[in-house]
Amino acid sequence: MGLRKQLTFFFSKKKKNSPPRCRFLQKLCEEGNQREIAIIFDEVVPLTGELMVDPFGNYLMQRLCEYCSETQRTVLIQKVTGEIPGVSANMHGTRAVQKVVDHLRTPQHVAIMRDALSKHTVTMVKDLNGNHVIQKCLQKFDSANKQFIYDAVTKQLQDVAMHRHGCCVLQRCIDFGAPEQKMQLATEVVANALILVQDPYGNYVVQYVLDMDVPVITKKMISNFCGSLCDLAMNKFSSNVIEKCIKLATPDARAPLLDELCDPTVLPRMLQDQFANYVVQTALTKATPHEFNMLCHAIRPFLHVIRNTPHGKRIEMKINRKPEPPTSPGTMPLKNPSRGGGGSRGSPLSAPSNTIQYIAEKDPRGEKRGAGYTQGNQNWNSSGPPPVSAYNNNIPNIVAHQQARPPRRQRLRADAPAYAPRKLELHAGVPPTAQW
Q: What's the longest Cα–Cα distance across the chain?
């Protein structure tokens, strides 16, 4: 069967018979015979839109786009761009269009695709499948050729950012944009931040802009939130943004937020709220010593209100945290309180008289040497373990202590209360088992 008859058979049969024929045509394209590719191209180009949305035909169009000549590719791109909104919205067509974008070789090809997409940018950004074509353009186009995307989404930022798929495209715009394009987008996000942070999808865009870690942007963002801190902190979505502001901002930039948080008319509501309490916890965790003291002074009068709640206990633990006392160098920590080591870590005054402590002493020659051991209140000057003789000399005291102490069984008997076992009284005529 000739190639043209194979093509006629392929297009005339139902879809259930298409996969084998489709794979055969794909293999012909991969072999690179330009004569055969030209025959296939002439037959399929009039049906470009139909084949791109077909479950099997889209694979043929992808292979044809890879292996055809530049002149043929130009014709194919012009044919695709005439139907690009409908084809891109299809789950199969979007993959074929992305393959075309991958193989735009010349400035002429890029210009044709750019002009076609610029008329439907926002519509495709909000589409389940079409948004992937826009993301592919963000990856492949240079800054000048993808500027149309930034212009389109900036004009309708709220509509795009508060959309399920639009918020993802905006994040990719930040990832792949030039510095000027990023600032263009970030400036518009800051201007609409108060609305976006309260949206289930818009808050992710605001957080992504904050993650750029530009101090000027962060400071402007915080200034927009001042005056609405309590309402934003008590919102499920915006509370995450407020926490990120506290984490990323410098002490000077977050000072207005913390001043508003310490307001006695605002703080009680935030402490008892299921979302705002996390903002308070983040503020305590990230605060400088001065900010921490200010927050503790503001929170303590209201601790009795939240003490019995799970988040209240966490806040109280953060407030009551104290730096661990410094451990003196060369002091052996005492670990087992039940055996005479229950004092504070590193404190020589808290040790009982039957423990051994080590105190480092600098040798005049510049080395640390051991000179003795501590028995009772006598000091052992050493930085390392004592010699074996130190333990041997202490053995008589240990043996005497063990001999003076009665065995465990005798101690238990001596401490146990005396009691008389209860006796059963047997009644005449009643079996003992029945009485029991």
A: 120
8 Å CB contact between 233 and 246: no
Cβ-Cβ contacts under 8 Å for 406 (sequence gap 6 or more): 414
CA 201 to each of CA 307, 352, 381, 429: distance values in angstroms, whole numbers, following the listed order: 34, 63, 66, 86
Question: Could you tell me the end-to-end alpha-carbon distance of the chain, in angstroms, rounded to an integer?
Answer: 101
C-beta atoms surrounding 143 within 10 Å? 13
Band the pLDDT of 180: cuts 50, 70, 90. very high
236: DSSP letter: T
Burial 392-410 (b: 16+ CB within 10 A, else e): eeeeeeeeeeeeeeeeeee
Read off the pLDDT band of 24 (50, 70, 90): confident
Using alpha carbons only, give the angle 38, 39, 44 rounded to the nearest 5 degrees: 95
**Are 206 and 199 in contact, with CB atoms under 8 Å apart?**
no
Q: Which structure tokens are listed for 351?
A: 């040790």
pLDDT at 19: 73
What's the token pair of residue 221? Answer: 């963002």
> What's the predicted TM-score (pTM) here?
0.71
Q: Give the pLDDT mean for 52-81.
A: 93
What is d(CA 137, CA 177) in angstroms, rounded to the nearest whole number? 11
Mean of pLDDT over the chain: 80
Which whole number is the average pLDDT over 169-193?
A: 97
Q: What residue type is 89 in one-letter code?
A: A
Beta carbons within 8 Å of 297's beta carbon, 6+ residues apart: 262
DSSP, res 10 = H
- Crossing angle of helices 276-286 and 238-248, in 10° steps, is 10
Which range, 14-28, 36-50, 343-357, 401-415, has the best average confidence (pLDDT)? 36-50
Whole-angstrom Cα distance, residue 90 to residue 96?
10
d(C-alpha 169, C-alpha 164), whole Å: 10
Which residues, in sequence order, are CB contacts of 145 under 8 Å at separation 6+? 110, 111, 114
Given a cut of 80, is residue 349 above it in pLDDT? no
The SS3 of residue 223 is helix
- What's the residue count for the chain? 436
Residues 83, 67 contacting (CB under 8 angstroms): no
The residue type found at 113 is M
Q: For the packed helices 179-191 and 166-176, what is the interaxial angle rounded to 10 degrees?
A: 140
DSSP helix, strand, coil percent of the chain (3-state; round to 5): 65, 0, 35
